[in-house]
């Protein structure tokens, strides 16, 4: 066996462990946490070292939560086209390896947050880990079609984690950001579940399009999108943000509602796929608008 072959296998194994952390989803969560760090700094910029330590710690614990999710859902993932190529679904990584990996990166994340950030952030992130890896993945997701609604709180926590990292506190403004992601999650995920309904039917998971049908889910995408549009106006209403954010939110919500209306009244799988993609862009731009507005007041 050549050195090049060994190196290639090592890189492949590393990429498989990396895939366990669902890096794209983790990146969005960490992005929202970082925005929370900047918004939680009332005067100037947050400490660069603090942002770095908090980002690393939150990333590690988030990755550990997703690794546990992959472990718990490995048989379900193997039945779904969308997830069949995940490392555990393919059997490329063993249960014991995944457990050790999750313990190592999760433990490292807790140490970083406790020692280099503050205990509050560590405990909040750990509770978020439990909420996603245990309560959502193992209890809610396989048992109720409202899993994404009830369990959405854990996925909505990153802004509060970031805020806690710099302020050692989680004020009302931070919880407003959590609320925005909490209300955003159902229409975002149900758009995916709609065009992947056959996949979810095979999985055995009680997703809303499978248990209650397409029309019911389409209506609830529209309903939650209206609620989301209203929720995103709260930062302006409580004078947390100004005109830059307000104008941005109105424009972004107009596009989001247009996608949701199409899902409700003119459904096709392509429309749902486009809505799902836009929902990710929407959240990123909305939080970016909050950041810009924080430093540029009109």
TrEMBL record:
It is a multi-pass membrane protein. Keywords: Cell inner membrane, Cell membrane, Heme biosynthesis, Membrane, Transferase, Transmembrane, Transmembrane helix. One of its GO terms (biological process) is heme O biosynthetic process. GO terms for cellular component: plasma membrane. It catalyses: heme b + (2E,6E)-farnesyl diphosphate + H2O = Fe(II)-heme o + diphosphate. It is an enzyme of class 2 (transferase). InterPro entries: Protohaem_IX_farnesylTrfase, UbiA_prenyltransferase, UbiA_prenylTrfase_CS, UbiA_sf. It is found in: Cell membrane. Pfam families: UbiA. It comes from the Bacteria. CDD domains: PT_UbiA_Cox10. GO terms for molecular function: protoheme IX farnesyltransferase activity. The chain crosses the membrane at residues 21-39, 51-72, 93-114, 120-140, 147-168, 174-195, 216-237, 243-264, 276-296. The keyword Isomerase does not apply. Carbon 2 of the heme B porphyrin ring is defined according to the Fischer nomenclature. Belongs to the UbiA prenyltransferase family. Protoheme IX farnesyltransferase subfamily. Converts heme B (protoheme IX) to heme O by substitution of the vinyl group on carbon 2 of heme B porphyrin ring with a hydroxyethyl farnesyl side group. This is Protoheme IX farnesyltransferase.
């Amino acid at each position: 066996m050549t050195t090049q072959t060994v190196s290639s296998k090592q890189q492949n194994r590393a990429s498989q462990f990396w895939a366990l952390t669902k890096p794209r989803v983790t990146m969005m969560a960490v992005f929202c946490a970082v925005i929370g760090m900047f918004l939680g700094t009332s005067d100037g910029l947050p400490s660069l070292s603090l942002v770095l330590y908090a980002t690393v710690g939150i990333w590690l614990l988030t990755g550990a939560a997703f690794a546990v999710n992959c472990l718990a859902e490995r048989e379900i993932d193997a039945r779904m086209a969308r997830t069949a190529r995940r490392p555990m679904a393919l059997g490329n990584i063993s249960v014991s390896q995944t457990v050790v990996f999750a313990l190592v990166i999760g433990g490292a994340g807790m140490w970083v947050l406790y020692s280099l950030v503050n205990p509050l952030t560590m405990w909040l992130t750990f509770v978020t880990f439990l909420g996603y890896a245990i309560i959502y993945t193992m209890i809610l997701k396989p048992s109720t079609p409202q899993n994404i609604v009830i369990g959405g709180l854990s996925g909505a926590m990153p802004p509060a984690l970031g805020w806690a990292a710099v302020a050692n506190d989680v004020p009302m403004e931070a919880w407003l950001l959590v609320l925005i992601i909490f209300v955003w999650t159902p229409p975002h995920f149900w758009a995916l579940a709609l065009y992947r309904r056959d996949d979810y039917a095979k999985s055995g998971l009680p997703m809303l399009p499978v248990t209650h049908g397409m029309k019911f889910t389409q209506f609830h995408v529209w309903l939650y999108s209206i609620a989301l549009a209203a929720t995103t106006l709260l930062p302006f209403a409580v004078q947390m943000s100004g005109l830059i954010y307000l104008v941005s939110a109105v424009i972004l919500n107009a596009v989001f509602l247009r996608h949701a209306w199409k899902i409700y009244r003119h459904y096709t799988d392509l429309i749902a796929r486009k809505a799902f993609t836009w929902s990710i862009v929407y959240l990123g731009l909305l939080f970016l608008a909050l950041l810009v507005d924080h430093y540029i007041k009109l």
